[in-house]
Structures are given as C-alpha cells and as structure tokens.
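Hey, resending since the last one bounced:
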Amino acid sequence: MCTEPGTDGRAIAPGAVAPGIVTAPAFPGIERIEAQFAGNAFEPHRHDTYALGVTIKGVQTFSYRGERRFSMPGQVIVLHPDEEHDGGAGTDHGLQYRMLYLEPALLFDCLEAARIGLPFVDQPVFNDPVLAGTLLAALGELDRELDELFVDDFVSRVADGLARHAGAPPRPFGNIAWQRARLARDYLEAHATRPVTSGELEAVTGLDRFQLARHFRAAFATSPHRYLLMRRLQQARAMIGAGEALADAAFATGFADQSHFNRHFKKAYGMTPGQWAGLRREGFRQDFPQGRSAGR
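The structure tokens again:
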C-alpha cells in the first residue's frame, strides 16, 4: 500500500487529498484561501480577523472555546477575532475547505449606520445554505480579483448572516471614539515594519494609552500591539508567497531575527513560515468544485 506523510507526519490513506494551500488575489481587508490537508494541519493560533468558511470535502475538526468541533461538507464555519483554535482533518481521507478572513473594520463600516457593534457567533459550526452561498460567491473562483461593488454587497450580506446567528443581539457601540481609533489604525499600518510607541499613538489620537486600548479593542476586536504584529506578519507572508527568502522577509518586516519571526508566525497561523511556504502551491487545484455548487 502506497502512502505519503500528511502535515503532521502521519500517513495519508490511499485516495486522500494531498496537502496544499491556494491563496487568492488580495482585496483590502479580505484574504481568501482554499486548503486541503490530512492529519492535524494547524497548531493552536489566533487571527485578528473573522475566519469565515465552508467545508467542501471530508470532516473538518478543531478545538474552539473549550470544545472539540466538527464541520461536514456544506456547513459554515465562523471563528471570531482573537479566539484561539487549531485545525485539521477528522478522518484519514483528509479535508478540503475554503476560508475567507475578514477584517472587523469592514463589518464596522457596514454596521456603523445601525449603531451596533460586532456580532459574536458563539456556535462556530452550523447549517445555513444562504450564508454558505454568500461565502462561496466570494470563494468560488479564487483566481479572480474581487470587485469593489461586489464587496459592498458581500459584506452587507455577511453582516446580516452573522447577526442571524449571534448568540445575543450585537451591543450598541455607544460612545466609542471611532475616528480616533481609525487614526491609530492608519498610523499602525503606515509604520507596520518598525516599533511604534504608546506615546506616538497618544500624540496621533489625543487619547491616553489606556483609553486608546479600550476604544481600539472595541472598534477592531484586538489590541494595537497585536494589530501591528499581524500587519507585519501579513506583509511577511505576502513576501514569502512572492518567493522571497524567509530570512529576507523577516528582516524587511522588522522582526529581530529568524527565531522571533518563526515564533510569532506560528502563533498567528498555526504553522511555521517554512511549512506555510511548502504548502502554498498553485497547481494542486485539479477538479475542485467551483462557485455555489461547491457547498452542496
């Protein structure tokens, strides 16, 4: 019997999917991937985005908020920003799924007129053909760029879908200092490859560091420190995807050394930069389902 190792070193059963990741052209605030794995693909990690996806083939399993979860083909997965989780295949025949990473700021822009904050979906796996179809409209053709008008409607539909499944009605955001939080966010993005001090953000926003920390988390579901770190990792990952050496990507994005870069990358994405680079192959999509039919 011929087998090959999965991402965790275990043998892959005959006929199982081969490990790989395909990334789509980026759109501001949105990342899209298609992945297939056997075994335990991701170690515990956290994103600063919503992770929204649909299982296509196999059983997807992950630990989230103290429980082991399972997603079957066609089911929707919703992971809230900064919630730790791992991930992998629930059977020896592997897993195929599509995932979209949505920055909370896009949802805030959509929800601002309604004066409500981010919805929190406490059950991360559920059946919702409407929301699955909405997600797959963006995940169906990963070789194409997203159109701005499409994204406007897409984010609105996603916000409606998340609100339907929120464990409690989204809280009114009250007196959150939106403009000042955005000033801090823009400053962090503009200076992502160097250390930024609390004093700098105080000068930019007019808020003291503790007020800013509270308003920033309310607006973007994470801290300024972690937001800055994730932007650096995001830039480094893009460089690696473009063929840059790991050491060059680490240096260019402000990490002290390769070990420092590897440690933070693994905490953010559940695997080392080298593992991610090895899995990101453009040629493994052969007969994958396309468009809305993928979730059926």
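The longest strand covers residues 50-58.

Sorry for the duplicate.
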